[in-house]
């Protein structure tokens, strides 16, 4: 077994009720200490195991003793079945057994591996304690003190799934169920108290006291405060004012006149509270929720007044005057459960929520630590570290009667969390609160404001009640009103239609007037404007105008007709031109083809000439060759017989018959036939003449033909340049001065012709 803070020894010592070190010890101080201790109570509630848990953990809970001790039936005990880890004694002492109580009773602790912790608290509620008893023990006195003007807080703290919501709210929502938690019971109690003290809900009036009850409901989810009764109000800020103290800005407050009204608002808000399923709790609260019930009470004194001024609250001839106002605020806090991430298996959004929850709970732990240090509360208490601690600032070490209920689960598997809760609660035990009645004269105004509102509501109610009595008449009136409404509607529709018609007529009239004035402006006779009604003159004028336009059109038609004729003529002329052009084009083509023929002929003749030249050169070569042979023969003859062949001359040798290879051709008279076979070319010397008559003859003929062609070509060129070209130019000029159908095409043709003529002339000049 381990000893230490919260361990067995420490818990045993504290169970004796001794003050921790550093606490004041003088008698007066002790008295004060005891009073302020009363203002902050810590209670433990151990919930019973749930059926599902019993199954899961295979723990057997068979009997629960009347004194609150929880025992296992011995015959069912088994070393394999650990039993609960929390045992409660005398409703004050709670012992935690690591591994479950069975293991301890089976003497397994001897191994020294298991821990046991014992703690003492003001009250420890064992699992069998019902809601009613729990309420009586933990909350009732705090709740009722708030009706008397104190601040009160009942706060449930504990591991997730340990029973906080069950304690604060209960599981069943029906108003009379025994499973109802602190909140519905507190609401009931407050209203009963008011009734028993002479007040009535809503009106709350008697001769001595008036009450006003209002509720608010907020949640702190992921460090953001939102109004559960006005869902559009979120991320609210906490403010502090001298007169009002701490308050949540923008948090709605609802005046309630009965427990039913208050609870319906509570359920409305609870339905909006952020919840979600965790591995431990199917419907786990993921936010800290605070249901606030503010009760204002006002003592009245009866003062005599004149009968006319007598207040309905006062007796006959008396008026009730407010004496003092007390305001008590009750915070009913259901915290989100502390949890270990590895146990709950939180991930994603749940993990974020879990972090925020643990963060604010650790801020709460820090505040408690600072309030309960060994030498008393520290100077600085970090209330501002979280929204939760800031809102609960008064409840923790301030002006408040506070009860903290720490809930634990009995399961051995929850041992670690239960131990942590116990340590937390044990520490909180040393918080000291100073509670005093809140009396605030300024609050009168608020109460009176609500009183006025109540009066208004009351008068509305009485009006409505009257209406109920005379329901038939009301229905008749309603029917009449409805009919009158319908008539009014119909009349309005008709009026609208009429107005539209009038407007339309007006518009038409205006247009007519405009037209008339336009026409009047146009009709000017003798320098004077004539009225349109003088229709004779107007008609005359119209007739004249008509005649004028008619004659104008006739003239135009005639012009058009004549131009049409012209166009016809032009067309004929153009046709003629076209014919002419076509003829000229044909002539041109014929001339060009003839020219081409001539050119070909010239080329042919030139080739022929060249052939003749070549032949001539060959003949001359042959002649030279024979001459040389002849000379050499003569020389050899002269050497052989002197004087015998001296008469032969080179000139004779020249006129001698040509060599046999060319003679067959030289006999022909045809120049073409006279063309020699290709041979070695030889140029004729200057001034040298061809003496071959056939060749000369052919040559002359060719020269004549070339000359003739040349003349013809020149003549054609002259005709083209000086006759056809001017003629075509003329036609082109004439065409551009006229206008006729297809003019464009004809002009294009003529332009093409001009180009053709020009190109031909140029080609012939080359
Ligand atoms: N004293 C009790 N008697 C019977 N059942 C209880 C008791 N306390 C809690 N339960 C049941 O245990 C379950 C968990 O309880 P509850 O939801 O109140 O836990 P919680 O501490 O508010 O959890 P969380 O922090 O996750 O919101 C519920 O089914 C509830 O009905």
TrEMBL record:
Q: Which InterPro entries match?
A: Kinesin-like_fam (IPR027640), Kinesin_motor_CS (IPR019821), Kinesin_motor_dom (IPR001752), Kinesin_motor_dom_sf (IPR036961), P-loop_NTPase (IPR027417)
Q: What CDD domains does its record include?
A: KISc
Q: Where, by residue number, does ATP bind?
A: 158-165
Could you tell me which SMART domains the record lists for this protein?
A: KISc (SM00129)
> Residue ranges of the Kinesin motor domain?
39-431
* Keyword RNA-binding (UniProt): no
Assigned keywords, A-Z: ATP-binding, Coiled coil, Microtubule, Motor protein, Nucleotide-binding
| Protein name as catalogued | Kinesin-like protein
Against Gene3D superfamilies, the record matches this protein to: Kinesin motor domain
Supply one GO BP term.
microtubule-based movement
For the keyword Coiled coil, the answer is yes
- The organism is Chloropicon roscoffensis
List the GO terms this entry assigns under cellular component, sorted alphabetically. microtubule
Residues in a coiled coil are 440-570
Q: Which GO terms describe its molecular function?
A: ATP binding; microtubule binding; microtubule motor activity
Give the region (Disordered) as residue ranges: 1-40, 635-693
The record ties this protein, via PROSITE patterns, to: KINESIN_MOTOR_1 (PS00411), KINESIN_MOTOR_2 (PS50067)
So what family is this one in? Belongs to the TRAFAC class myosin-kinesin ATPase superfamily. Kinesin family.
Compositional bias (Basic and acidic residues): 27-36
